[in-house]
Amino acid sequence: MFVAGGGLNGEQKNGFRDYAAVYSWMGSQQPEFVTQLQAATDDRAMIFPFHPNGEIMHQADYYRRCIAAPLAGDGAPMITTRAEAILWQQGFWTKHSLSQRRILLLAPGSGARAKNWPEQFFVTVARWWRWRVDGVVILLLGPVEQERGGVNELRQHGLIASGLSLSQVVALLAAGDVYLGNDSGITHLAAALSVPTVALFGPSDPRQWAPRGRQVAVVRRALDCSPCSNLTMAGCPHRACLTALDPEKPIAIIAQWMIDRASLP
Fold it and tell me: So what's the pLDDT on residue 18?
C-alpha cells in the first residue's frame, strides 16, 4: 500500500478514516513503514513486533494482550457460514451424491512446502478412510497446490475441490465429518468451525501456532532440532519431523473419534 520514498495520497489517508482503531504487527522495525502508517492514520496506529519478545506463547494470546483484550471463554474462535455458501454446499453434495456419506476433508498444502506432510502419507489416510469407513474424501486444493503440483497420486483418491471462494471453503469444511491438514490457514479455519481437526505439525511450534477449536489434535514428531526457524526449515536436508511422521497416529485418532460417534463398529 505504501511506496518507499513516496508521500501519501488522499485515497490512502481516506482508507483509514472510518476505523476507530488501527493495529499493526508488521513492519515495526521499518521506520519508513511506521512513519507512513502513522501519517495515514493521524498517529492513531498502534504498532507491535510480530512475535512476543523473549516469550513463547500462542500468537492469538499475544495479539489479545497487545490490545488489552481478555480471552473469551476457552479462547476458541467462532465462525458462521453464509446462507449462500450453504446453498452452494448443498448443491455440491447433491451433485456428488454425498448425502448420508461420511466425509473426510484433506488439505495437503500450506504456505511453505517445508511444512507439508508427504503426499504418500495423505494417500494412505485416504485409502484407509475409503476402505475402513466406506467414506468419501474431499481434497481441498488452492492456487499454490495447483501451481506447485505434488498431489498427482492423491488426486486419484477423492473429489477435487478447487477454485473456491473463502465462504465456499467454509461451507465445505463445516459439512465434513473430519479434517486432516498441515500447519496452514485452512487447518485453523477447520478448527474454528468446530470440525474435528487433526493438525500435522513439523517445523512449526504448536505452542505458538496450534489451531484452536472444540476438537483439535496436534500430531507431531518432536526432534532435537524442532521446532526450527523459517530459515532453517527452508534448508533442512531431511525434514524428518514430517517424513518420519507416519500415518498410523492420525489414523488412530480419527478412528477413535468415529468410534466415539458410533460411526464405526
Answer: 81
* Domain membership flag for residue 139: yes
Distances (CA, A) of 122 to 9, 164, 208, 256: 49, 21, 25, 18
Cell 481441498 belongs to which residue? 140
* Residue 165 included in any domain: yes
Distance, in Å, from the CA atom of 247 to the CA atom of 93, rounded to the nearest integer, reads 28
Which phi and psi (to 5°) does residue 140 adopt? Answer: -90, 115
Determine if the pTM surpasses 0.85.
yes
Q: Please say whether the beta carbons of 194 and 214 come within 8 A.
A: yes
Residue 59: all three cell numbers together: 500468537
Reported as a single tens digit per residue, the pLDDT across 173-201 is: 999 999 999 999 999 999 999 999 999 99
Q: Is the pLDDT of residue 8 over 60?
A: no
CATH code of the domain covering residue 228: 3.40.50.2000
Q: Helices 83-95 and 166-175: crossing angle, nearest 10°?
A: 60
DSSP per-residue string spanning 57-107: --HHHHHHHHTT-PPPTT--------HHHHHHHHHHHHHTT-TT--EEEEE
